[in-house]
Amino acid sequence: MVLNSNRVEHFSGGHDTAAITISGDAMPPLETHEVCLPPPRTTLQKLRQRLSEIFFPDDPLHRFKNQTLFRKLLVGLQFFFPIFQWATNYNFKLLRSDVISGLTIASLAIPQGISYAKLANLPPIVGLYSSFVPPLIYSVLGSSRHLAVGPVSIASLVMGTMLSETVSYTEEPILYLQLAFTATFFAGLFQASLGFLRLGFVIDFLSKATLLGFMAGAAVIVSLQQLKGLLGIVHFTSKMQLIPVLSSVFHQRNEWSWQTIIMGVSFLVFLLTTRQISMRRPKLFWISAASPLASVILSTILVVCLKSKVHGIKTIGHLPKGLNPPSSNMLYLHGPYLALAIRTGIVTGILSLTEGIAVGRTFAALKNYQVDGNKEMMAIGLMNMAGSCSSCYVTTGSFSRSAVNYNAGAQTVVSNIIMATAVLVTLLFLMPLFYYTPNLILAAIIITAVIGLIDYQAAIRLWKVDKLDFLACISSFLGVLFVSVPLGLAIAVGVSIFKVLLHVTRPNTAVLGNIPGTQIYQNLSRYKEAVRVPSFFILAVESPIYFANSTYLQERILRWIREEEEWIESNKDSNMKCVILDMTAVTAIDTSGIDTISELRKMLEKRSLKLVLVNPVGSVMEKLHQSNILESFGLEGLYLTVGEAVADISSSWKAHS
Amino acid sequence: MVLNSNRVEHFSGGHDTAAITISGDAMPPLETHEVCLPPPRTTLQKLRQRLSEIFFPDDPLHRFKNQTLFRKLLVGLQFFFPIFQWATNYNFKLLRSDVISGLTIASLAIPQGISYAKLANLPPIVGLYSSFVPPLIYSVLGSSRHLAVGPVSIASLVMGTMLSETVSYTEEPILYLQLAFTATFFAGLFQASLGFLRLGFVIDFLSKATLLGFMAGAAVIVSLQQLKGLLGIVHFTSKMQLIPVLSSVFHQRNEWSWQTIIMGVSFLVFLLTTRQISMRRPKLFWISAASPLASVILSTILVVCLKSKVHGIKTIGHLPKGLNPPSSNMLYLHGPYLALAIRTGIVTGILSLTEGIAVGRTFAALKNYQVDGNKEMMAIGLMNMAGSCSSCYVTTGSFSRSAVNYNAGAQTVVSNIIMATAVLVTLLFLMPLFYYTPNLILAAIIITAVIGLIDYQAAIRLWKVDKLDFLACISSFLGVLFVSVPLGLAIAVGVSIFKVLLHVTRPNTAVLGNIPGTQIYQNLSRYKEAVRVPSFFILAVESPIYFANSTYLQERILRWIREEEEWIESNKDSNMKCVILDMTAVTAIDTSGIDTISELRKMLEKRSLKLVLVNPVGSVMEKLHQSNILESFGLEGLYLTVGEAVADISSSWKAHS
Question: SUPFAM superfamilies of this UniProt entry (chains A, B) (predicted)?
Fold first, then answer.
């Protein structure tokens, strides 16, 4: 199988044929190389490798290699409690940065905690409890240095929606609280199990495009719901779809209170302005970070001063002083609402996990360190399980507060400890101060926070780059707005998976031509200098060959050949004698695919066309070999490159003619 | 970007590094070729092309190109009624073959029709009705020449199961019949719509592996159920799972009738023997084709002769004479059972469609003609819709009868017309003859027919070639045996889709090395002669880069680089300076994938490593361009082949040093 001499001659012109001539000039000999099988492995070895790629792609044990026993113990301790990684090097300079950033996020966390708890239809104090215990636990277990832990808007919203559709907080407050803590427990259990079972890749199925649409939809709903507080409406729907919320707003016009509206809108404008300033100048991040607390203080003072003159502004009212009461006795583990609690837990768990992991990875990438997804899941999960036993609801790393934390110069998770301490002081001593804080300010804070989730520029970018990603985005947006939160999410995941299947079901095939003067074969429709090789028809299949596309591919390849034959006939070109399938991009094959290849070979043989396979990848080669169809291809049916196939087959024709 | 001279020198040794030296010898100049964008197309053009690939991959209108108006009309007529394609060339010789094969399949169709109707818990006469009208309609519309149309075991079984779980034929015969005809109507409507909307690819999701397991499971259940007839049991479960069926058999031992058992087993042995003979010698196909009718005649005569002496052998009893009565007034289009009828229709519709299409394709491939899947679906669908209005239940192309038809020398669908005529004669004149036909013979015929569906050798082949295909097969087998028919099918489809997603979620990556003396770069672990290229790290990604794998790929690539760096350190090799990603097999990318590439570039840049992309396919190139990340790669970040990238970057390093 050695060709002693050949040359690929240059030819000008675009789609011309007749480009390759084999002549006897001086050129280094071109050998044809055999296509190798991958090294033989037993089923067990294959299974082990496959499982290790699925569950341990990051090779978490590589740290333990070639270490002494003591080092191994230490590394293990650091592995499970990342606090030991940095605690030994911790110094006063780091502490100073952490104290500053910790106090900054505390000033944001306290008003946000109260607001988000209201979003989940929970008493405001639960929001503060949730900003105390979980950050402390995360600081021991978590591996991100910049994550600011606490309640977040999306998870609060989803929990509030899902629970309120069945149980009303105003009617059955104890049951509602029980279900909230139980959902938190299951959210934590689900998160920790995903991490422990190393199934972290599950959250990858929520693509960025899906989340973009989902968050924008949720932001719109949440903002509209806040009109309740901002307009002073008393009777409001507990539903979460666009239409009932809007009709609630406009049907209760008699409840609108002008004092509330004036004050609410002024503070909203103030908060949005400070947000804009900080976005334009990242150095001034503290302006938007401090403004919620400033608004809370200012509005409370205003209400206290005006309380004899102005009526109709609703305030938070009495909040109990003291630390988180234990709530493990409130877990609702059997009864008619258990399924609801589990469902709510899983949906909020997966959403908060996605946010926490994404935020952690974002800031880790900025500072060039790695966050271990599965470990983070365990940390977030354990922190929620602990939270559910100490009157906390679902928490995770918040994007807005983590950004403030990062900008304020946080160095380690100690900033979370500082924040928790500030919340502790608030819980112990400052609760009475919130008595006159108006509800409208909480609504304004929530609107300011969630409005940043509407990223229409990113949606435009999606439209420009990938229409199907845009479809996933818009369908999750509309699903959340008009159907429901979990269903909207399910629709979006469905669209994403459909996209993958569509690509598999209708893969691309391309006719290749030779780029004159080279051994490069490329897509004829894309490379204008590429030319057809007479007597050959070279086709690249750009996808695995699976049950889902084998019928299509067989028909499509036959259609390509039919069209090529028609073209040859009308152009009086030399007859097609050989069909070359470039399998470089056929990254996998199954039994249906193998049958297709084998049938195709038989059908082409009946038309006296030769079928040649080029460069099957390892796993494909292995399966072709195991199914014994390689033998039917013979020595001249399998080549390593298209160039070698063309040269070798041409020369064998010459030898026979 | 033109390299004036370079040479890739040979180096012996397996995994050695240091293989490439750039020297100034005489070699033809190697140009680097620009990576082209695909020709620009508007969104509308792209959408149109995409839709035409999804819905019209076979380009059904190509027949109409460049034809006169008259020819176009004729071709159109032939397109919708394939009968016009062959009717003009039909001659006496063809007719003779068709008459022989038609009578042969009639002798099989009559006993099978009666038996399969019993399998669906329908009166036996419905099976004969279903062998009369649908074949006539198919002969006008269908494009397969060898398909023998009529009731089939799987669809009968599934319809019987699904309906009997809610409605009992013995208690509410009219309602049961109504539901059966309605389910048939919806099956036809569903099939015709799939064809009309060109959604035929839906049935591709039932992979061969899945069907193999499903049919084997169904065959086991059906065979065990036939023990009712074969043992003469009166009280039998209507459930379809293994356990209730087995317990029915053994708990009703007092009902076993020895006369039935002796006669049944003898005929079963006779039928199985003739089947074996025909399988060993395909020329003797007529032995197994004629044996069911022979058994029916023989057993009926036996019962007539012995009826005064032997009791306990149950017979078919009275069957009404006459043609199919109209049943369009029996369609059940509103009421509590409508959902059941629709569900049953869709499941039986999809199963019978799969069988019909697969059988049609099999025999078309043998005779080297094409069957148009979407058109076949319309034909089968319309024939079932018409059937539902003329007292027929679900029919399709049967594998066993089509094989007999093919072996008996059928040339066109006229054999179906002959068969229908034979059934017509039976319906009009011969019905009283079946009065004494024993039920046990029907059970024996069903067992003989379905036992061929258990193809354990194919399952062994699956295990050898593709473990995940085997898993899909075994899970549909067990699902059908222990859970239920539709759920077993759903599980199997789930496994198949999971397999596709698994491949997408955890794609393969391979380190490439140069095969000395060539421009070929191949997998180092597979090609022992390939050698590492110093200062370069060349990685091939073998999958689209999607949301579902972008996180994994990023981590995996970083791990590859970490391991390579550790290897370099321990081997005191020259430092890694450039990472080349071979994108040949990256057949698609989405926005998450683009972000991954861009983040990877930034992360590598921080470690002073250069990232280079090689040979992105058209659609990937387009998206990289639209998202503006190509610019950040610059001129020296994108090459057409790995060889060009290595040569050009090495020479630029030389120039700078």
Answer: SpoIIaa-like (SSF52091)
Half-sphere exposure of A651 (CA within 13 A, CB side): 19
Helix (H, G, I), strand (E, B) or coil at B606: helix
Question: How many DSSP H helices and E strands does chain A contain?
Answer: 26, 10
Are A584 and B587 inside 8 Å of each other by CB?
no
The radius of gyration of chain B's CA atoms, rounded to the nearest angstrom, is 32
Residue A528 with chain B: CB contacts under 8 Å? 36
Confidence of residue B31 (pLDDT cuts 50, 70, 90): low
CA–CA gap between residue B81 and residue B104 (Å, rounded): 26
Q: What is the structure's pLDDT at A5?
A: 34
Start-to-end CA span in chain A (Å): 18
pLDDT at B9 over 60: no
| Closest CA in chain A for residue B31 | A518
Q: HSE on the CB side for B514, CA within 13 Å? A: 29
Which pLDDT score is estimated for B3?
35
Nearest of B565, B575, B508 to residue B540 by alpha carbon: B508
| Cβ separation B208–A595 shorter than 8 A | yes
Alpha helices by DSSP H, listed for A307-397, are 338-366, 373-388
What CATH code is assigned to A2-36+506-656? 3.30.750.24
Which tokens is A31 given? 């050998």
Tokens encoding B131? 């062998």
Domain with CATH 3.30.750.24 in chain B: 2-41+506-656
Cβ pair B201:A505 closer than 8 A = yes
Domain with CATH 3.30.750.24 in chain A: 2-36+506-656
| B155 and B351 Cβ atoms separated by less than 8 Å | yes
Beta bridge partners of A611: A579
Nearest to A38 among B464, B526, B626 (CB): B526
Nearest CA among A248, A262, A221, A275 for reference residue A440: A262
- Residue in A465, A548, A640 closest to B500 by CB: A548
**Which of chain B's residues have a Cβ under 8 Å away from the Cβ of A205?**
547-548
Measure the CA–CA gap between A39 and B527, rounded to whole angstroms: 9
DSSP letters along A577-613, please? -EEEEE-TT---B-HHHHHHHHHHHHHHHHTT-EEEE
E strand segments, A185-338 = none
Q: Which residue has the higher pLDDT, A631 or B274?
A: B274
Could you identify the residue written with the tokens 């329908």? B122
- The end-to-end CA distance of chain B, in Å, is 17
Question: DSSP 3-state assignment of A273?
Answer: helix
Write down the pLDDT at residue B385: 96
- Residues of chain A falling short of pLDDT 70: 1-31, 238
pTM of the model: 0.79
Give φ, ψ of B346 to 5 degrees: -65, -45
Closest Cβ opposite residue B618 in set A46, A523, A618:
A523
Q: Please, what's the b/e burial string for A465-480 (b: 16 or more CB within 10 A of its CB; e: otherwise)? A: bbebbbbbbbbbbbbb
Beta strand A508-514 pairing with A536-542: antiparallel
Highest-scoring range by mean pLDDT, A18-22, B81-85, B554-558, B572-576: B554-558
Angle, CA A65 vertex, CA A63 and CA A68 arms, to 5°: 100
The CATH architecture that domain B2-41+506-656 belongs to is 2-Layer Sandwich (3.30)
| Of B120, B119, B146, residue with least CA distance to B135 | B146
Output DSSP code: residue B323. Answer: S
Least confident window among A63-72, A534-543, B99-108, B329-338? A63-72
* Three-state helix/strand/coil letters over B510-531: EEEEECCCCCCEEECCCCCCCE
